[in-house]
Design brief:
By secondary structure, the protein is an alpha+beta fold. The protein is about 25% helix and about 25% strand. A hairpin with a 3-residue loop joins strand 2 and strand 3. The protein is globular, with a radius of gyration of 12 Å.
C-alpha cells in the first residue's frame, strides 16, 4: 500500500464501497486481524521487505492486500 492511507483504512474503505455501506456500519476489523501488526506489514518505512501479500476473511470477502492494491473476492 502506498500513500498516506493505512492498510487497515484502505481495507475498510474498499469493503464499505463494495457493500454500499458506511465504514462505521461494518464489523470491527480488529475482530479479525491485529490492525497495528497489519499496518506494519505495509509501512512505507519497512526495510528489506517487498512483495508482501496478506489474505484474510472479512465481511463475506476474501480480502487480499499487496503493496499496490486491495482485492475483494466474494466467498
Amino acid at each position: 500500500m502506498q500513500g498516506e492511507t493505512s492498510a487497515t483504512v484502505a481495507v475498510v474503505r474498499a469493503v464499505a464501497e463494495a457493500e454500499d455501506a458506511s465504514p462505521g456500519d461494518l464489523p470491527l476489523l480488529s475482530d479479525v486481524i491485529d490492525p497495528e501488526a497489519f499496518d506494519a506489514l505495509f509501512d512505507d518505512d519497512r526495510a528489506g521487505r517487498s512483495g508482501v501479500c496478506f489474505s484474510f476473511d472479512y465481511c463475506g470477502y476474501v480480502v487480499t492486500v499487496t503493496d499496490d492494491a486491495v482485492e475483494l473476492d466474494a466467498r
